Amino acid sequence: MAGMGDAPMMRQFLFAASAAACSWFALVATASAQCTAPGTASSECTGNSCATITAPMVSGAAGASVNIPIAFAQGPNDSQNGQGFDEVSAIAFTLGVPGTGNSAPLTFNCTDGNLADGSVTGVPSNFTVVIENAQCTNRNRCLCPDTGAGQTRDNFVNIVVYGPRDLPATGPVQIPVLPASGNIVTLKMQIAAGTTAPIPLKIFSALDTGANAKPQFGANLSLGDQAACDVTATTANKSNVKFTPGLVTVGGTPPAACVGDCDGSHNVSISELVRGVNIALGSQPISMCTAFDCQNTGTVPVSCLVRGVNNSLGGCP
């Protein structure tokens, strides 16, 4: 996926995805509304005016498998029917596992040079996921390499999520919008034997530079709306997406965190408290803010909400 950069979404996805994803764009292109020229994400999204992508805080034993759910939430209503970052229909992004460096502490089980069955689950109804770098066909690195043939194992995952899952043979295509919030894909990966250090999970974007820049063959994140327009950034070059990194803790429970600190900023904002309440009420999944799961039960009891409020008023420990 090298070279995706800040090109328009159409070219990005055509270059990144499989033949099925290419067919999606070929079919919807003729029905697209007028698209505003996409911006280049050179400043971060702030406040509540953002779509969000969240990697989880999970734990597992060395040598065992671990599930890594990735959550997405649409941006707030922008009053554009069928368009905008509140009606995202397709996403391309790179998840680092850890993404930078040379090690590969998280790997997929592979069968005949491709991901084993059950490696990718949790995709919303009527959507498809493509792991672009699963195979090493016509390349020397991928997630399922033949190391005896000199191929290298990637320590990042290039992911495309789009719909509809089944395209009609003829006629117009009704493009579905991703759910308002919830998991968009779950990866089942293996923790390498002998791993002891926590493994960071990072979602890369064009804002990452220097030592934190995306891997050479990774892709900048890209969002496409129902009209097949690129809505990753505004025309003022401000990103439309917030990212919450995750962590895989090896051999125990996730490290103690500031309860309610969803984005790792070491502060608990009012919007994060609202998210915690929504999770407790069941209107949002726990993956939207695992920092409220203070008892490691996969739920948000009242005691965890109270701790979040205290951290909002008095600051994180």
Overview features:
Type 1 dockerin domain, Immunoglobulin-like, alpha+beta, 6-stranded mixed beta sheet, globular, 25% strand, 14% helix, 317 residues, single chain, 7-stranded mixed beta sheet, 2 domains
Record the SSE blueprint.
Blueprint: H1 9-16, H2 19-28, E1 51-54, E2 57-60, E3 65-73, E4 88-96, E5 106-107, E6 110-111, E7 114-115, E8 120-121, E9 128-131, E10 141-142, E11 152-153, E12 156-162, E13 181-191, E14 199-203, E15 222-225, E16 241-244, E17 246-250, H3 270-281, H4 302-314
Parallel strand pairs: 1-16, 2-17, 10-11
Antiparallel strand pairs: 1-3, 3-13, 4-12, 4-14, 4-15, 5-13, 6-7, 8-13, 9-12, 14-17
Helix pairs in contact: 1-2, 3-4
Q: How does this model look, in words?
A:
The structure is a single chain. Helices cover 14% and strands 25% of the residues. It contains 4 helices and 17 strands. It has helices at residues 9-16, 19-28, 270-281, 302-314, and strands spanning 51-54, 57-60, 65-73, 88-96, 106-107, 110-111, 114-115, 120-121, 128-131, 141-142, 152-153, 156-162, 181-191, 199-203, 222-225, 241-244, 246-250. It starts with 8 loop residues before the first helix and ends with a helix.
